[in-house]
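lol ok so funny story. i was supposed to be doing the assay writeup but got distracted and ended up predicting the structure for this chain instead. priorities right. anyway since i did it might as well share w the group, maybe its usefull for someone
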Amino acid sequence: MPSNCCSNCGRVALKLLKCKGKCGGDASYCNKSCQKADWKMHKKICPVGDKSAQKLTFEMSHPPGHPFAELPNDAPVQAVRRMDAYGGSGVTLLYSDHLGIEPLMPYADLLFCCDDVEDTCEKAKWMGEGNHPYEAYVTSPVDPRVMWLKPEEAAFNTEKYGDAVKALLQHGIITDTGKKVQIGLYPEKFPICRIHAPQTNTIDEIRRQQKEREEMFASMGFQTMHLGGGGAKSS
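and the output, tada:
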């Protein structure tokens, strides 16, 4: 989505009013009416007075059969809102140190086959600083030609990441809007949810990273293919 898009109605405009609250201008609006209409959602990341913003850290449990099911504790993670290739929003889950590094040590040892306790501690600390994804993306990009999403909305991949999406809903980090979209050949439509987290990157960063990847692949003799977005239907 373009940056000049109203967080309430989704309308694109050259001039929008940026929120001047604790969100730091994360949301923009056509007018005061749109800002007022969106307040019920936006206040979760833009609290007033002594109220706290939406908590973005939680612990992911693992069902029997999951590769992490035998580890002694649930995985401490944090939800991060990042822009996708279309300029829309997406959610990444990163390992988090909000409970300290000790709960991360079993995960560090399993993921990196650490040599000793010191190495495990070092890797766990590095993971806890937001350097390693628990899930790179639990969302799927939606071509704007298929469905126009508001800046804070995203399609959540319940087919592959159902447990993570359920946890995000339970912890209030996302809210189901009631809209759904068909992505590719997945049999079920994905829910469109509002993300209660501030944006952490920009479309310029996304384009720069994409260009760097294309240049890297070109140097290796590969040709980059740009696919169209005709494989999705909305409802």
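The two ends are 19 Å apart (CA to CA). Residues 212 and 218 are 10 Å apart (CA to CA).
back to the writeup now i swear
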